[in-house]
Every structure is written in C-alpha cells, then in structure tokens.
Amino acid sequence: MKRFAALFNALDATTRTGEKTAALAEYFRSAPEADRVWTIALLSGRRPKRIVNATELRLWAAEAAAVPLWLFEECYAIAGDLAETIARLLPPPERETDLSLDATLRALIAQGGRPEPERRSFVTGVWAGLGPDERFLFNKLMTGGFRMGVSSGLMTRALAQATGVEAAVMAHRLMGDWDPARTRFADLTEDGGAAEGARPYPFALASPLEAAPDSLGAPEAFLAEWKWDGIRGQIIARPGTFAIWSRGEDLITDRFPEFAPLQDHLPPGTVLDGEIVAWGGNAPLPFADLQKRIARKTVPKKLLAEAPGHFLAYDLLEAKGVDLRGAPLSERRAHLESLLAALPAGLPLTPSTVVQGDWETLAKIRATARAQMAEGLMLKRLSSPYHAGRKRGDWWKWKLDPFSVDAVMLYAQSGHGRRANLFTDFTFAVRDGNDLVPFTKAYSGLTDAEFAEITRWVGKHTVERFGPVRRVVPELVFEIGFEGIQASPRHKSGIALRFPRMLRWRHDKGVDEIDTLESLRALLRQVSMPGPTTAD
Questions:
Q1: Is 227 a catalytic residue?
Q2: Which residues form the signal peptide (predicted)?
Q3: pLDDT interval class at 97 (50, 70, 90)
Q4: The pTM is what?
Q5: Could you tell me the residue range of the domain that residue 301 belongs to?
Q6: Looking at the DSSP assignment, which residues form a beta bridge with residue 414?
C-alpha cells in the first residue's frame, strides 16, 4: 500500500498532465504486476463491492480512536469526508505493515457477507498496521469513494509509455468485462492476451457546441443526426460471440433479450455503435420508459411489451472482422446503411435518421427535437475517423437549451473533498399555494466564490440542523436547469427532474416570484404530449 499511496500523493500534488502521466508510467513499469492490474481497474471504475456501511465505520472508528460518537460526528461534519476523518482521528499505528495493494484488496473482498464481528476485527486490524496515508486510501476503497483525478485517457497514455504499445491500441485492450482478481498484466497489455471476441471499442465522444454552428464552416462538411435520449451502446457480433455493451462498459446483453435475433442476421465480424431507446412502433418513447428497464437484470414480459428496446445505429466500426475506425465517417456511414438495408424487415435495428439543410434549416429542425424524443442534434465531420474518447473539433453535440424554473433554497449541506468546508448541496422548493414544496436537489453550476458567499449566508440564516443538513430561511432564489421531467410517486412533489443543476443565482428575484408546482405539472403535461415543446 505504501507504493500505491506514494503514487496517489504524487498525482494529488500536481495539476500538470505531463507530470501525472510520468508518475503513472513509472508506477506501471516498476510496481508489482498484480498491483498494476488493480490500479488499472481502480482508475477505470472497477471498484470492489462495499463490505461495510458508513454507520458501521463510524462506530468502529470512534471506538478505535477512543472518542465519543458525538465528537466523531462533529469532526466528520467539519472534515466533510468520512475516510479522511477516520484517518486523522485514529491513533498512530501499533505496527506498520506494508501489504501490497493486491493482498489488501483480496483480503477486503473476502470479507463480503461475513458477520459484523469478523468484518470489524478485520478492518480495525488493518487500521492498526497502516500509516495515515495508507489508512485514508484503505477507507476510500472500503466505502467505494475512491477517486484519483486521472482520466481514462491519461491512464492509457501512461500505459502506452510504460509498455511501448500505441495508446489507441491500449485503450481497446482495456475495454470489456475483466476481473482484476483473475487477470494478468499481460492479459491487458499484450496482443491476444485476453479474449478478443466480445471486447468493445472505446467510444468516440462529442464536445458541446457553445458557439454558433456556422463557426464550424460549411454545413455540407458535416453529417447531422438526432441526439437521441437513450443508452449509448455497441453491438458486437463476432464469430461465436454476441454481446451488447453500454458506454459505461456494462455488459447488458441479457437486459435486452429482444436484440437476440440480431445475432442470426448480422454478418460475423460486425460492430455497431448507436443508441438504445424504448420504441413506440415507429419512434422512440420518452426516456422515462427506458429508465424502468435500466436497473433490472431480468425484464418482465409486461415491461418488454410496454417499452421494447430498439437500436438506432450511428456508426459501423467493424465489418467482416476489419476495423473501420480509421476510415472517414462518410465511408463508414455508407457501409452502415448498405449493411442494414440488406437485413430482414422487423428487426429492432435501424439507422439513426440523418437530417439535412443549411445552418438556418438545421436550427429550425433542432427546435423540434423534444417532439422527436431527442435532446438536439449531433454534428459529425464527414471526413473524421472514429476517435477513441473525445477529440475536439470533429464531433459536436448541439443540444437544446435546458428547461428552467426559479426556485428557493430550503436546505443546505456541505460538500466533499476540496469543498468539504463549503455548503454546495442544496434542496430547492417551488410554491404550492401558501406552501413551499421541495422538488429537487442540485449541487453544480456555481463558482467557488458563489459557494463561499452562500456558505457565509447559511451560517447566519440557519433555522434548524439535522446532522450535516441545515434548514435555512427561504430567501435565496436560483434558476434551476434540467434536461427532462417525469412523474414520480416517490417524491412529495410528484415530480422528478433529469440532470438538475443551478444555472444562476437570481439576486434579482424574491421568494414571491418563484415558480409554482402547478407550472411544473403543466410542463410535465406538455412534454408528455406529442408535438413540439419549449422551455420557459
């Protein structure tokens, strides 16, 4: 753990990409092989399952630190991070051990499902043998809150430096479903080391279009298509293998059984990139219908009938086993349309609709996106290859402006990490007659300076405390932006928002000028009906 902690501290101490890449590359050259595999897994989001909850950790840590629980809770409220609070409060280690990252994680995983006394004995025993830095990381790994501030692209470049493998090739080798407990470093970094059959390609990503579209040049240089509101995915149809992957590298084949017939009709050696949507016969259904299926590992027949899956194909990445990603989009798209045209009718697979026109015409088409159950338009340069990750300049997402409402802050809670001493997580309400009804939470969209100003205000205007949460005087009004709205019986307001965030602090408005619950209900009715919709 000492070597891993040293890497973490080196990465945390700099914001320079070159220095982070060099530190990671040296680690990948010199660390024990098994530790390198676990580090790759952690940096790519493959974290061990939690074996202990936060309540248990607080109780165990307070006892190990010989402090009353109330004092531990006060320290936690100030630090804002449970892992850091525990690492700082525990007494110096009785003995310092230097277990490898691999040994530590394997022992941690082995505690899953064991009785509380056994897990408690294991955790406190590990604490007793670790220094503060190692304890902090061990706590992060236990709670599932481990973050290292390293993008997948940066990690891939570091691995490429350490191994001499081209970065794009390395990115592909790291994709797919692999278990760090059973995977060798060579399986990830050497050609043919791991099973290639079901492995997806790294997804190409688009950048948000913030300037006017005509700043991109001639519209004839771009392919414009709808930006669908679904699940980005890849269909892999290789000899002996059929798999469906989400952009988050989740294998979701079993969650969409209606796609199974595709394996009988797609030519072997085919990889498609596209969007999975719930399908209403000839057009997508609202995302809320697809959302009912996302968390389910098995889908009941009733839900399959109500929200059947459909794949809207954007791109052809592989044909007859040949990697096409380096070819221009114009060629890949032509191959895609030819391939899909040859398939039997009635399959849950069609090409994503292309839209055409000058920039003014495309802007008018974009304005109708919500009526199409889309979020806007995608603009892709016809000469572009299929990049790994985000390469600014070729692919753009030209989304509609978000919906927005004005709401008042009711509750405030401190953030985590570098914002642990600031109130950054807020609950907002709208008016319902003479009452204020909470309807959403948001924690992003403001500057650090604004969060600092709000924190000072909260300190002077707190009405009531509930642990780390403060109820405040309902005075501060904010414009809340969101991408979608749906009915939700789980919320008091009866409404749930999609991707809520704070667009701006409305210093110019008072609580008597905020929106009403009825206006939100009217918006919900509006977006649930066919036809174009607009945000206020």
A1: yes
A2: none
A3: confident
A4: 0.69
A5: 204-399
A6: 423
